[in-house]
Amino acid sequence: MSNFLAGIQFPDITAIIPEVIALIIGCLILLIDPFIPKQKKRLNGYIALFGFVVLFFVTLSYLGKSIVTFFDMFSVDNFSTSMKLFFFVANFVVVLISLRYLEMEDSNLGEYYALLMFATVGMMVMVSSKDLIMFYIGLETMAIPLYVLAGFIRMNERSAESALKYLLMGVFVSGIFLYGIALTYGATGSTKLVDIVRFTYINGVNPILFVAIILIACGLGLEIAMVPFHFWAPDVYEGAPTSVTAFISVVPKVAAIAALLRVYFEGFTFFAPYWQTVLWLLSALTMIIGNVTAVVQDNVKRMLAYSSVAHAGYMLMGILSFNELGVSSLVYYFFAYSFMNIGAFALVIYLRRKNIVGDRLEDFRGLAQKDPIAALVMVVFLLSLAGVPPTVGFVGKFLIFSAALKAGFYWLLVIAVVTSVISLYYYFKIARSMYLEEPVADEPLLQPLSVKIAIFLLAILTVVFGVYPTPIMNLADLSAKVFFGY
Amino acid sequence: MSYTEIFFYIFAVLSILFALLTVTRRNAVHAAICLLLTFFFIACNYVLLEAEFLAAVQVLVYAGGVVGLMLYVIMLVRKDEADEVRQSLGQRVIAVFIAILFVLEIAFISLLAYYGNYSGFLSSKMAQIGGNTESIGAVLYTYFLLPFEVVSVLLLAALVGAVVLAKNRIER
Amino acid sequence: MLETVILTIAKIIIFFAVLMFFVAYGTYAERKVAGGIQDRIGPLHCGPFGLLQPLADGLKLFFKEDITVAKSDKPTYYIAPILAVVPAILVIAVIPVDENIMITDLNIALLYFLAVSSLSVYAIMLGGWAGNSKYPLLGGLRSASQFISYELVLGLSIVCVAMLVGSFSLRDVVLYQKDMWMVFKQPIAFICYMIAAIAELNRAPFDLPEAESELVGGYHTEYSSMKFAMFFLGEYANMVVSSAIATCLFLGGWYAPFSILPFIPGFIWFLIKTFLIFFFMLWIRWTYPRVRFDQLMGMSWKVLMPVVLLNILVTGFIVTFGR
């Protein structure tokens, strides 16, 4: 026993401090929730908000550090740190839009925020891990709270249905992912990315690993919502509470893409031409199917679901470029996507009022007359989603396209541009509905303050970083250096 | 052929047989019993392969816990209804194709491991370390410490989630 | 080779015979103890002091009409009574009666015990379901949830012991108690173990699965003759086996208490202690009323589980820093 464990080093605990803090906040919410009277449940949300702010600044201090610990399983580098910063920003906004929404849905439980925290822990582990087992566990830690959150309004049939669909798809796909890990382990004798690279360097390419690469992409593909694993997205997005939809459509997707990026870049480096081909196909299909199907939707949540599928296609382009610009543009795109997509869903929440979910196209009718500022803000988000300057969406798409151009994927670029043009049509269906149609007389808008703050914050970010992208670009460049800096 | 090998093949054939029965039985309770036996015979093979700890955990968790919960759910479903559910999607050709593909892959990996001599680092060293319960413990709390701890977060989240979904919300 | 095989088979036969003797006279003891506690006499007429009563009971059950319920699920209906007995018999393989008297010294004996005994729930679940009748089904479902809840408590209380000993082998566990019995070092684990064991055996005050007053007879309502006898046998065999395991885990196995009377051989001490725990179970059954089902589940999850987890935590500190 002693020689077996000889020379073992105590892991560097400082690397996981942000994860531990997030976990403690989650548990804290669970512990104090029973002592908060029903009218003051919002306090839980404030704790979560405060927690994300604390986490943001704690994690900020890790920027520039590079720690690989826990026996080559866990790595703190600029990429993972900036991903974590992204999670905290996005989650902060998600909590902000949830505060009032949950009260309206009469589901204001502390567990909501605790589960959000646990999912965040899972995602943080995911982007930091350098081991396939760690990836899997992080993925599951992220996914299980998501299933519950999707069904959080339990008395609502749609919500319950979406949770069950999500769960069944998730369980099925995580089996595929595990099979991919098993094949990798069988072929290389290790699940560590370092060992996989070393093995493939010494022994050359192995046909089994070709299958493993596809299976791993499939396993992460569910959260990415890429074709052919996108079927769940519209139903789940529509049925889940809108605040949860905003969360699911952005943060887990980004976490899964970041994880996929790390597995491919660090583990299967020598298979690059192969997985580039696979991702080429997936990305093209995702963009085409996502954008074309979105055109025929008249439910805004479903439309945004297909649009988020399409955006997953654009993000995959960032991975398959396999160059420094690809990674940095991808990181930029993550931030851009979170601002505009959460913003669009926040508008749906903004329209939530008695008996109206706010996700039908009719609910947007004549918004320009009822609430001109909200309509204007929505147009900003839609412009950004479509990739029109001067917004973050434009800069993000521009960067990703130029990365693909640099890598020489001309045909993919053509598809991307054409589908972007198609996307203009359905985004402007909403805008047309808001500006050119007469409002229907129904319940007045509630205009909750916290949602207002969130929407304006996001709108300002969308425009400001579209005009002046340097701060995020700097962060993105730093994280790209992790993979190509040496 | 040694006694161990004979027993190994007996258990292997039995576990495959019951696995087949599990997927072909129309009666859900019978399928669950077959699944139980599959797990049990797999555990027997683990013993023969000198993985006693794994065998005990296999029986304790899968045969004892998981199938028990499955049966619990099945018994609450009405029997005649459950028997009439169509249990095929009409995609047999694709299913068979994929199954054959997976079998071939596993065979290929086994061959690789057999000839290539790069199986996991534990299998051969186990005996020197002092039994596989001890070595699993040692590895779990050193090399796999972080995944082990993250799994506890996962279980906590699942527990909280189950309570949230199951709780009667009208009372509150 | 051949000698080992013959020796092992002989050992198995002897152990099995002793177990069956205990089971038979367990039923006799049950009735005598019940009689005593209720101020009656108990069985009297078959043989001296009614000592042949178990034999007579067995003969009676053997010659009764064997009814198979027409609408039952046949395979399951036949398998369930067998499953009731098998796990208990499998467990005797690892019980050390004396330092060198045991069928096998497994290095994962405790896990083996937990694994095999976790299978005994299927007898009750399947037996309850197969009869196609509503009361047995309720009994079976109750039993399943009760079993799964208390299985955890049982396992965790065994973990407390295993942490101190540092081995899963029952022989090592007993050897560790040479100077001091485990019950003095782990009193909380002992109490939790006894409660969980009684709950797993579906005995009063936790006999909800077979509560006569509400479920007729519980899971075995639809069984008769030898099939019913098998359930009966399984229950008493399980009682004996878990008393024996408790003896090994907490009462120092074959060691004489405080080293008095060392001339009495170890296996006699073992049998005496096993019988004492067995008697304790009978005593509890005839003293306490049945608990309500929510109280039962509440006690497992809200009381025993936190207590035993806390106990593990404290034990962990002691093991780490106390040495």
Which tags fit this structure?
heterotrimer; A: 486 residues; mainly alpha; two-stranded antiparallel sheet; 19 helices; 1% strand; B: 172 residues; Four Helix Bundle (Hemerythrin (Met), subunit A); 8 helices; 80% helix; globular
Descriptive overview:
- The complex is a heterotrimer of chains A (486), B (172) and C (323).
- With 486 residues, chain A is mostly helical.
- Chain A has helices at residues 17-32, 42-60, 78-104, 110-128, 132-150, 157-188, 193-203, 207-224, 232-239, 242-267, 272-295, 300-321, 324-350, 367-370, 372-386, 392-407, 410-436, 449-467, 470-484, and strands at residues 67-69, 74-76.
- Chain A has one domain.
- Chain A is built from 19 helices and two strands.
- In chain A, a hairpin with a 4-residue loop joins strand 1 (67-69) and strand 2 (74-76).
- In chain A, helix 2 runs antiparallel to helix 3 (78-104), helix 4 (110-128) runs antiparallel to helix 5 and helix 15 packs antiparallel against helix 17 (410-436).
- Chain A is globular and about 70 Å long.
- By secondary structure, chain B is mainly alpha-helical.
- Chain B is built from eight helices and no strands.
- Chain B has helices at residues 3-24, 28-48, 52-76, 79-84, 92-116, 122-129, 132-140, 145-166.
- The radius of gyration of chain B is 21 Å and the shape is globular.
- The relative contact order of chain B is 0.06.
- Chain C starts with a helix and ends with a helix.
- In chain C, 46% of the residues are buried.
- Helix content of chain C is 68%, strand content 0%.
- The A-B interface holds A 1, 4-5, 8, 11, 16, 23, 27, 30, 38, 70-71, 73-74, 107, 109, 111, 114-115, 118-119, 121-122, 125, 131, 133-134, 137-138, 140-141, 144-145, 147-148, 151-152, 154-155, 163, 179, 183, 185-189, 206-208, 211 and B 102, 105, 108-109, 112-113, 118-121, 125, 128-130, 134-135, 138, 142-147, 150-151, 153-154, 156-158, 160-165, 169-170, 172.
Helix/strand layout:
The complex is a heterotrimer of chains A (486), B (172) and C (323).
Chain A: H1 17-32, H2 42-60, E1 67-69, E2 74-76, H3 78-104, H4 110-128, H5 132-150, H6 157-188, H7 193-203, H8 207-224, H9 232-239, H10 242-267, H11 272-295, H12 300-321, H13 324-350, H14 367-370, H15 372-386, H16 392-407, H17 410-436, H18 449-467, H19 470-484
Antiparallel strand pairs in A: 1-2
Chain B: H1 3-24, H2 28-48, H3 52-76, H4 79-84, H5 92-116, H6 122-129, H7 132-140, H8 145-166
Helix pairs in contact in B: 1-2, 2-3
Chain C: H1 2-37, H2 53-63, H3 74-91, H4 109-118, H5 121-130, H6 134-165, H7 170-176, H8 182-185, H9 187-200, H10 212-215, H11 225-250, H12 266-285, H13 293-321
